[in-house]
């Protein structure tokens, strides 16, 4: 199989970008009933237009809308489905207390906030993203529309958060396979709507997959008497769920998955652990084209698991942190890319130069997975994006 490229590009970012103070203020006013929907949308569209121009200036071909219409990175997919309902104050007992993000909230003395629950048969009844994509597409030349990147929620997001027996009603779905089958069909329908609108580049955001690298979570899973499946069996079901979601996608629809260990308000992460224990199934069995991998700190482990990456897949190395403004040393980051290439080369019996053809660079995560954003300001974000572009220009001169 030939390597699927452009997308991904040599330089990428992970979708979410810092919002302006004006946008944050009008969102808050809207929620308090002090601003209209029209006023909110006007500011969103103005800021999206500006941030697309910024991405063009910085030479990032896979431009996003900064996720400016979202409150959190996972957006509105699940609430937009028939069979799911938002609950403002869910019972904390329904959440897995050892799921890393839930555990972090509980340790800080907070209870999990509003959530989305399956209450009936799941059905796709219209895309909540397609109009946002169409507006984004209107801001670039027709030949650039195929490069635009849209981020989607992980299909397993609301399954992992809830303890066994709480993800779906037993009188609606007899077992998890039935539940996952309808989720997969909903994603198939969503991807078709987006494809028909011109979208050719999607990135799933999935911290859940890397939670299976966390010894703390795995221990909690083992000790939970409600679980009927082991953590490894659940991970395998998640791989199958993804593959079912993507079973009907056209060949020219680029699909990537971003894995990180949390990116909450104030640059908080949730979990730790290298990719080692999930690498074989993640890289060899998950039917995606590209992996956007967190690699900015030791909590992500070493590059050894990249030996499992097949020849036809791409990896975007998140070696530059998006969490803090301090700039990394460019030469050190370039060396990390070469170090990663050595393991891909070793795993495939190819040269380092050939392995480099499978790689690109990015920040480790988005800059504002939650709308309030990370502990970095706009100038700091731009400098980070410039650094990533400079790393890519040095390693792959003349390439997008």
Write structural notes for this entry.
This protein is of the alpha/beta class and 400 residues long. It has a single domain (21-395), classed as TIM Barrel, CATH 3.20.20.210. It contains 13 helices and eight strands. The chain has helices spanning 21-31, 37-57, 100-107, 130-137, 157-161, 176-196, 207-211, 215-223, 231-245, 279-285, 330-348, 352-356, 378-395, and strands at residues 82-87, 115-123, 150-153, 201-205, 254-259, 290-294, 314-320, 359-363. Helix 10 (279-285) links the parallel strand 5 and strand 6 (290-294). The longest helix has 21 residues, at 37-57. It is globular and about 60 Å long. One of its GO terms (biological process) is methionine biosynthetic process. Pfam families: Meth_synt_2. GO terms for molecular function: 5-methyltetrahydropteroyltriglutamate-homocysteine S-methyltransferase activity; zinc ion binding. Residues 177-376 form the Cobalamin-independent methionine synthase MetE C-terminal/archaeal domain.
Largest sheet: 6 strands, parallel
In DSSP terms (H or I, runs of 4 or more residues), the helix count works out at 13
Which structural category do the helix and sheet elements fall into?
alpha/beta
Strand content: 5-15%
The separation of the N and C termini measures 22 Å
Poorly predicted tracts of residues: none
User: What's the CATH architecture name?
Assistant: Alpha-Beta Barrel
- Element-by-element helix/strand order: HHEHEHEHHEHHHEHEEHHEH
Whole-number average pLDDT? 94
The residue fraction in helices comes out at: 25-40%
Quickly name the level 1 CATH class.
Alpha Beta
- The dominant shape is globular
Rounded to the nearest angstrom, the radius of gyration is 20 Å
Instruction: Strand order, main sheet: write it out.
Output: 3-4-5-6-7-8
Q: Tally the beta strands.
A: 8
CATH topology description? TIM Barrel
Count of structural domains: 1
Protein name: Cobalamin-independent methionine synthase MetE C-terminal/archaeal domain-containing protein
GO molecular function, one term: 5-methyltetrahydropteroyltriglutamate-homocysteine S-methyltransferase activity
InterPro entries: Met_Synth_C/arc, UROD/MetE-like_sf
Pfam family, one: Meth_synt_2
């Amino acid at each position: 199989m030939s390597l699927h490229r452009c997308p991904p590009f040599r330089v990428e970012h992970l979708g979410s970008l810092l919002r302006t103070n004006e946008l944050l203020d009008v969102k808050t006013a809207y929620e308090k009933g002090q601003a209209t929907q029209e006023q909110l949308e006007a500011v969103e569209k103005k800021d999206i237009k500006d941030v697309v121009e910024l991405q063009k200036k910085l030479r990032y071909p896979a431009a996003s809308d900064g996720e400016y219409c979202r409150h959190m990175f996972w957006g509105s997919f699940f609430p937009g489905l028939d069979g799911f309902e938002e609950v403002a104050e869910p019972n904390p007992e329904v959440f897995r207390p050892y799921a890393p993000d839930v555990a972090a909230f509980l340790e800080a003395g907070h209870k999990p906030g509003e959530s989305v629950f399956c209450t009936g048969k799941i059905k796709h009844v219209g895309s909540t993203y397609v109009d946002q994509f169409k507006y984004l597409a209107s801001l670039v030349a027709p030949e650039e529309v195929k490069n635009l990147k849209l981020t989607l929620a992980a299909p397993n997001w609301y399954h992992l958060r809830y303890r066994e027996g709480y993800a779906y009603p037993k009188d609606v779905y007899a077992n998890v396979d039935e539940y996952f089958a309808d989720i997969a069909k909903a994603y198939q329908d969503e991807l078709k709507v987006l494809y028909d609108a011109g979208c050719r580049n999607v990135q799933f955001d999935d911290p859940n997959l890397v939670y299976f690298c966390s010894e703390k979570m795995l221990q909690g899973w083992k000790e939970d008497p409600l679980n009927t499946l082991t953590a490894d069996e659940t991970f395998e079901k998640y791989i199958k769920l993804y593959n079912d979601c993507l079973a009907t996608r056209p060949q020219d629809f680029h699909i990537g998955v971003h894995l990180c260990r949390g990116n909450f308000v104030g640059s908080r992460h949730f979990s730790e652990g290298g990719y080692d224990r999930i690498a074989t199934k993640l890289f060899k069995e998950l039917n995606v084209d590209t992996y956007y991998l967190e690699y900015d700190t030791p909590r992500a482990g070493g590059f050894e698991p990249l030996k499992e990456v097949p020849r036809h897949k791409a990896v975007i190395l998140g070696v530059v942190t998006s969490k803090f403004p301090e700039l990394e040393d460019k030469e050190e980051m370039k060396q990390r890319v070469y170090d990663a290439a050595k393991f891909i080369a070793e795993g495939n019996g190819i040269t380092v130069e050939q392995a480099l053809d499978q790689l690109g660079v990015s920040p480790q995560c988005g800059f504002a997975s939650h709308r309030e954003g990370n502990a970095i300001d706009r100038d700091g974000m731009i400098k980070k994006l410039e650094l990533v572009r400079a790393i890519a220009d040095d390693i792959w001169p003349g390439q997008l």
